[in-house]
Sequence to fold (370 residues):
Amino acid sequence: MQISKNILVAPLNWGLGHATRCIPIIQAVLDNGDVPIIASDGDALNLLGKEFPDLKLIELPSYHIKYPENGQFLRLKLLQDSPKIWNAIRKEHSLLQVIIHDYHIDGVISDNRLGMYTRLVPSVFITHQLQVLSGNTTWLSTQLHLHYIKKFDACWIPDVNSYDNLSGKLSHHDDPGIKKVFLGSLSRFKKPMQTQKKYDLMVLLSGPEPQRGILEKKLLGQLKGYGKKVLFIAGRVEKQQVVEKRGYITYYNYLSTDGLQKALDRSEIVLSRSGYTTIMDLHKLGKKAFFIPTPGQFEQEYLAQYLGDKKIVPFCNQEDFTLDQLEIISDYKGLGSIHSSTSTSISSILETAFSSVNENSDPIPNSLST
Fold:
């Protein structure tokens, strides 16, 4: 008789991408007959709590990541905030040992939470960034990231082992100290259904403040005179879902996975950030899109440029964007033109990573001891 394992899934709370790409991971854990326990903070924890209301949630220390209003100062802001970030990493690492003991954890899956490594049970790290772009400090930021990745038993990369991929050079590094497992593109969505299009444009926002809010204000201002049907998803995970009709615009603060899938299926084109999780989701659905990378975020700027150069998705910087630029989308192939899947299922990867289990483990307690 197979004994179920308790698997801790811990995404970083930096925008919603790390949380949403963990949804298929959590579902695979459930499909394997195991018990996922979710650990995060802020909007990431709130979103996953709404997606999986029956699962146990644990709050972790916040990294307190916030963007400056001027994207040129992002590196300086992260440097200023680095003491708070490192302190949160140390705190979550110490807390992890308690969680493993109290919740009888058999394995840990960390999506970019650097402190969630342990030698008590197998631990894996999910990232598409083996190279962390930061301008003239790319070598240093990459080495710091690799230093933490090596503390985990394996690195799961949500892409394929090819340069004709979704993440370009980001997911490639020849460091022999890292055990790399390529998952293929991860998405919470299913293959699109053939449905009648209802919206000419879908705006899909995400990411940390204040940049998310700055772009929301800019786009709502421009869309007043658009004259076409727009579905606007603001990307604000709040206690209550809000929907408003504003002329031709249907506005939601957020949508659940099911609602978002239906909305995407019914939309002709998508306007969004070039965050990697968004790219994977739009790839799964074969959508045509236009990207506005978050100012100062080198990764998003690189991904937008990479996909733009391949004539897959056009892009523009936030300051210069105008609605008439959407007209060039038809000249691009769309994200469905890239192959980014593997023959190995997430379920089998989970089985391989967490093959051992303590047969004498007790039931999960109702509260965490501190």
